[in-house]
Write the structure tokens for this entry.
Amino acid sequence: MIASPFLTADVLIAYSAYFVGTASPGPSNLAIMSLAMSAGRRSALTFALGVVSGSFFWALLASLGLSAMLATYSECLVAIKVAGGLYLLWLGFKSARSAFRTEPLRAGTARQDEPLERLYLRGLLLHLTNPKAILVWLSIVSLAMSPAGGTSHTAPVVLGCMCIGVSVFSGYAVLFSTASARRVYVAIRRWLDGSLALMFGIAGIKMLTSKS
């Protein structure tokens, strides 16, 4: 009996590592949560689709040998870190500006004024400028390598991890767009936006000042 390539020990370890990294709080997840509570499910799912698209882009490059390219052109990673850090600082500024707004929100009213195309591009840009996403995919693909150095498990790992990513990101969008989550958001909006501003700001500065 031949074991499924999706259920080997190396592949399951890769799945577990990717799930932990994807489900843990980070800029993408927190942005999806906030958007789901403030603008509704459709907007959050569109943003999540952009995040997933960016993740798939890095997965594809990692499976095609991105590590060798980064070793040769290390300035590419530096440029990505700078762009990512600046983008996170911009997100922090937007969250801080929202935190200082004093107009009240109603629990039944969704803020859906931003075009879906722009939301998709925001999600895509957030993940394309995240060096952590690149390094995570490089480590995931390395876990998929066979002991002999082959890449026979790369396709199952990439496909499985993408399914996990879609489930996690869309799950956050659906869960935090419920009526109860919206009521919580109305009550804590300014505190949440302030926390997001702080988190994005710290992450952006850390990314810009990191030497690794």
Remarks:
- The two ends are 45 Å apart (CA to CA).
- The CA atoms of residues 38 and 111 lie 6 Å apart.
- The longest helix spans residues 179-209.
